[in-house]
Amino acid sequence: MSRITGCLFAALFALVLLTTPGFSHERTDGGYFTIVDESGTAVYLTGRAVDIGDQFLTEQNKRYEVVAIEGNIAQAKFIGNVNLSLYQQTTQSRLAAILAPKLAYAQTKGKVAIYHTHTDESYVPTDGVESKLGSGSIYKVGASFANSLKSQGLEVIHSDAKFDPHDNMAYERSRRAAMDLVKQQPSAMFDVHRDAVPPEVYGTKMDGKDVSKVQLVVGKYGPTGKQIEDYALQIKAAADKQHPGLVKGIFFAKGGDYNQDLLPRSMLLEVGAHTNTLESAERGIALFADVIPSVIGAVPAPAAQAGKAGFGTTEAGPSGASKSIGWILGALVLGGIAFLVLSTGSLKEAGSKLKQFTTNEFANFFGPKTKKYKRRKDDDEGSK
Amino acid sequence: MNMPIGMITLLVIGVLVYFGIAQRILDRMRLTDKQALLFIVAVVAGSFIDIPLMSSPVQVTINVGGALLPAMLAIWLIFKADETAERVRAIMAAILVAAVVSLGSRYLPYEPENMFLDPKLIYGLSAGLIAYLAGRSRRSAFVGGVLGIILSDIVHMMTIIGLGVPGTTAIGGAGAFDVVIIAGIVAVMVAELVGETREKIQGGPVLGPNRPEGLYEFSEELSENRNKKNQSDEIKKNKTDDNSGKNKEGEKSE
């Protein structure tokens, strides 16, 4: 009987797990979401399937949260204006200056890694199709990014690994290539994609040429989500200064981590949409590359961002890295307590189990403390 | 790497917590604390070694730390199982996990932002649930999680060969941070959570002569050793506080 109850309980849990995401399937009808604010004005358009709780930062640095979705329209609540100047620290805090690894700073230039999780993504006006398995023109956008970075003296590793088909495990497969890139110690890593919205959303003109804008996507799910959020704001701050209007905005997705947990300077970029031309996307990403050296600290100038990227400053508050550390440690402590209580049945029992853990559990590493040993000696003999 | 101190601290803490949890999980896999730690060291070192298996029509590699070592541990656990039924259940769990992952990857939304959980965790969670259903043991859960993901990689490899899609299959390529190991760890955690919750709902496990036949749980092994030890502890405890109702729970907890 109890076994049946157990099975039912687990099956129910599995059902909930596997079906809930099914309600919010990726848009395959070529549609996209128009996100409107309280007054009904469209503030953001994206081909990413939007979920309640997702947040985004518009080009004008206004932050919203999606509160309701009806058909193709998502209703968003205005959260506040983000002061990006806080993300452009020019001076290092004293502590950071002392603790900063001098060796690392002595390196002249940084190294940037680029890969593409969705290796089929293409641009319809240029390629005729929106998807070419294994050989999407997204690689050309990556190459344009790489060339532009190289021309600024940065070292670039551009991965040509393929992860098709474009399915739910694609990020888990690209995680392997991403890890390979991390082993080569890059200062920053980019997963370059394209979006799926009408051309005017990303299309713009800069210096008289058609350019596709760039959207940053932050995975809020991973343990380092807060840190990545700060990093995205730093990038936008730097981009707004150098090429105003180039970064379309930041999308904060609550459901995934996009492998951004592997490196604190990981970012997912969307360069234009399938409706834009490849050439405009190549130009967009090349301009975006101008921003990178200052963001990763390869040049000392405007955004050395020590404050926000260190532990934080008084005026800007704790940094994303500090918040992420807090989240990880908080989850560890809460999870530990929950496990203890669940597995023992009462706080008192949990306490004694914890005591047993701290005194006895690692005895085979270090040997028990002498004092404890004496007290337990007769117990051990009894068990032999 | 040229990174500010906050990021470096975050990296260090993240890695310590991750391996700390992994160590606690591995020491439930017929490994002692020391062996579990050595295993983690081997996984980290092995993360840097990829063994090429084939190069055409698709390139297939297997990572020593991310797939080979955990797979070897899982297979060893199957061989060391006490009874054939347990072996069958562990293997069944692995096959079911592979099926769920392969089907899930095809039919679940392919952008993680559409899900409330990262795919990595979804597959780990389903592995834990399936393995718990099939084998009701933490070890089955680990075997299911690890071998299930590896099998699903093989299914993926055959799919892309069948479709003629150019691609690569790097089994366990992300090493210690690969979904193979994450699924194994999460699966054990789920088995632990579901098992403990269920036990709690029904008022504790059945111990002694009435224990259901064929029900193997890790706690059984522990309680064998600890019961003896607890007996003397309990005598002491009963002297000081007289709560006879707690005795049974004390036995269960360890």
From TrEMBL, chain B:
Residues 201-254 are annotated as: Disordered. Residues 223-254 have a biased composition (Basic and acidic residues). Keywords: Membrane, Transmembrane, Transmembrane helix. InterPro entries: DUF1614. The chain crosses the membrane at residues 6-25, 37-54, 60-79, 91-108, 120-135, 142-165, 171-191. This is DUF1614 domain-containing protein. It comes from bioreactor metagenome.
